[in-house]
Amino acid sequence: MRKTSAILLALCQLLFWATSATSQSINKQVQYLSGTDNLHTTTWDFWCTGGRKSGYWTNIQVPSCWEQQGFGAYNYGRDYVTYGKNFRFADEKGIYRYQFTVPANWKDKTINLVFEGSMTDTEVKLNGKSVGRTHQGSFYRFMYDVTDKLNYNKSNQLYVTVNKMSADGSVNNAERLADYWIFGGIFRPVYLEAVPQQHISHIAIDAKANGSFAMNVFLKSAAVGSEVIAEIINNKNQVVGTVKKTTAANDTLVQLKTSINHPLLWTAETPNLYSVRVSLGKNGKKLYQTTEKFGFRTIEIRKQDGIYVNGVKIKMKGINRHVWWPESGRTVNASIDLNDVKLIKGMNMNAVRCSHYPPDQSFLRYCDSLGLYVLDELAGWQKAYSTKAGTPLVKEMVVRDCNHPSIIFWSNGNEGGHNFDLDDDFAKYDLSARPVIHAHHKPGNAFNGIDCNHYEDYYSTKKILADTNIYMVTEFLHAQDDGGAAAGLSDFWDLHWNSKKGAGGFIWALLDEGIVRTDMNNRIDVNGINAPDGVLGPHREKEGSYNAIREIYSPVKITLKELPENFNGIIPVENRYNFTNLNQCTYRWELINFNKPGNQAAGARMGKWGAITAPSIEPVEKGNLKLDLPSDWKNYDALALAAYDPFKNELYRWTWKIKTGMQLLDSMVTTTGANAVDAIETDSSLTLKASGIAITLSKKDGKLTGLANDNSKQLSFGNGPVLVSGISHFTGLKHYKANDAYVVDCSYSGDMKKLQWKMYPSGWVELHYEYELNGTYPFTGVTFSYPENYVFGAKWLGGGPYRVWKNRQFGTPLNVWQNMNNNTQTGSSPWIYPEFKGYYSNVVWMEMNTAEGKFTIASPDDNLYVRLFDFYGLSGAKPAPALPAGDISFLDRIPPIGGKLAFNISNNTTALGPLSEPNKVNGLTKRTLYFYFGLPKAAVENHQFTMPKENILTDEKTN
Hints:
Layout: H1 2-22, E1 29-32, E2 42-48, E3 57-62, E4 75-76, H2 79-83, E5 93-101, E6 109-115, E7 118-119, E8 121-126, E9 129-130, E10 142-145, E11 155-163, H3 169-176, E12 181-182, E13 185-186, E14 190-196, E15 199-207, E16 212-220, E17 227-233, E18 239-246, E19 253-259, E20 274-282, E21 285-294, E22 299-302, E23 306-309, E24 312-314, E25 316-321, H4 334-346, E26 351-354, H5 361-370, E27 373-381, H6 387-401, E28 407-414, H7 426-429, E29 436-439, E30 450-451, H8 458-465, E31 470-476, H9 489-498, E32 502-507, E33 515-517, E34 523-525, H10 544-552, E35 556-557, E36 570-575, E37 586-594, E38 604-612, E39 622-626, E40 638-644, E41 650-657, H11 661-665, E42 678-681, E43 685-690, E44 693-698, E45 704-709, E46 713-715, E47 718-723, E48 728-738, E49 741-750, E50 752-759, E51 765-777, E52 780-785, E53 791-799, E54 814-820, E55 838-840, E56 845-850, E57 853-858, E58 865-868, E59 888-893, E60 919-932
Parallel strand pairs: 25-26, 25-32, 26-27, 27-28, 28-29, 30-31, 31-32
Antiparallel strand pairs: 1-14, 2-3, 2-5, 4-12, 5-11, 6-10, 6-14, 7-13, 8-9, 8-11, 15-16, 16-19, 17-18, 17-20, 20-21, 22-23, 23-24, 33-34, 35-36, 36-39, 37-38, 37-40, 40-41, 42-43, 43-44, 44-45, 45-46, 47-52, 48-49, 49-50, 50-51, 51-60, 52-59, 53-54, 53-56, 55-58, 56-57, 57-60, 58-59
Cofactor: Ca(2+)
GO molecular function, one term: beta-galactosidase activity
Keywords: Calcium, Glycosidase, Hydrolase, Signal
């Protein structure tokens, strides 16, 4: 890849030379000295002063983080916490050399040497001469005028010394001693830009929703009487506005103002972009020209009310994002940036916080064009830059980013990393004077009328929302491992949506910061519990919260859980867009039949479908969707409804059962067979046999102790049923024939009130049980044992394909799903999703594929959870939450999951809101299960399907 990249880069430079040698461009010309991204790099000479591959000249790819090229030592920013006060970060320096030439016709131009990002202190020499002050700060674009230091059409040598840690302690405090991986190196591109001596250095735009347009144009060496002309161009490449101004003596800044009628406005829902083409000329001759994209939009903070864009209150459905790729650290490419924006919008989010530093420009461009509200953040992780160090960094950040319409706030540091002296500096370079916020973690630190306090629980959030300030939480529901993120989110989102001062918030975080350790055989390292904080894995593998967030944040809000008995095609809907009428979206209904167990594929077969025309439902209003279903719709298994946004992206797809669980099993669970059930009794056991299948029950404790069939002989499923909560003591059993079936009634004292086994001539086994609990329990139901290492995978009709928790059951629509066994522990290697082990919801049937053959479990009763094997949600001294006994459990209630931080580190999730309360159980619970411990039989092989019509205990007297 590197050789190919070098060849491509050389060809590009040859093409550049051919172009520049034959024309005098009025546009900026760029010559890359490095590569452009992590996939296209250039080889430079390199010397590392410490750690791996240090003490000698060799080569390195630029741009890169030098640790990922095999140099130096790895540091996580909180290592000083882990290893104590005596810990010292690796004081590494990287010395870079690179030779290059520039064309002779650049001699009459102004040449800037530009670094897009270098970690951390960067000293630059060109042809043996210093080009300027050492730059301090990692994440910012900086440049030097090197016009008088270049050899034109001759060799030039660039010499760059990069210190991993800064000589300025405040820079280290703000961005190095942080909760993320610390790297060294030139991690973003380096290039030369050539412009005419009279040129525009940069522009700052303020384009309001009313069509007013203002622009500061910063000039270099402009002659008196020069003309600055701006042309506003729409997305059809039509000039819709023009304004010009003539320069006076010594002008370094001119301001242009105009307005256009009825501009298409920029919002996250309507990312309409314009371009402005700005030229500098004199006497009719253009000397310089540049073009920049922007959007018309107005941002307001209406104190004690809300955040407004274009006069409309908005609420943030956001997430925090690090710039990251496992193989290359903070050196990424535009495809990664684009994919991240698509993934964020794919969760129906509308906002992103650039934590904790400004991102690559390509990311911001995709936020502009696809539509995300952005918080662009000055670094400051719990400690701030000094005024001396921070002042130039604010300028560098704002000058680079100020024209992106997606940026609606500047964030001055994180969690106490706020230098108040810098708050006023942002507006010096941002003509639109966006609001500045402080992303903090302590109450009482509201700034500009917005409280951003981190990691409040549901009930403290209610108190903040009832107080004075707008509440826009910049970090909440910390998503370490499988906790946080979507767990409890529905309650938080409803709270913000329905509160006047609720402005939404930003989940921590988008992805697990797993780095490929070049010093550890390329193993991916998330630094223990420090960095597996994502809704996505390091390579953007989707965890269970991803689809749950997608449903919770769907702007087409549908809360219907099941079709009512008198369903007439009406589905209530709420519009949770801020700007879009629901009649701008499109909708499609489908009538589907689910595939059955056996050799058929997972999924469903579509029978009929149709489009839906939505009525006018304005933002924040409620209404109904009317489905014009055919007369035979009840003959299908389920109804699906998909909603698409105005750009034809699917928002979400909901599925509801049409048939009952009993009806869905009617063609699967069979009762008839060629012969009656045989019963064989010994002193210690009772064995029932039918159609080549045998089950053995212990007369000592009533548990299933043996299984066999004609194909695989012995099966290891057994040691149950056992109540997972409550007390039960076996007191005896009685058995008898009931018509063609054979029944075993087990008696208990305690909380198990009734339990009955019934075997049918077909070989199907029915288990009916009733238990009574009164109190609070993490889970309820029954459990069995089975060796996990025997299991190849599972196929099931139910919610999926991801596992659930009590407070995270969204995003798992009803379908036939299939998953192979894996050992994924969320947030650590291997990142294979969906996880296999976990709680699965709304299961109608599940077919286990094992080394001993297949066996099937089914239930006609609603709301069955199936637990598969041992797993946990949160790592720690004691993994949480605790699990039921056994290996495969059939549950009526499951626990919620907490998050990383203090109020739920012990899995006390109550503070996360109503859905996160523990299970309060009062009264009797009944459930029927069916088991088939043989190879699956296709329904067409037996036409005598006779599902039991009632699932009640059989009394010996009535049979």
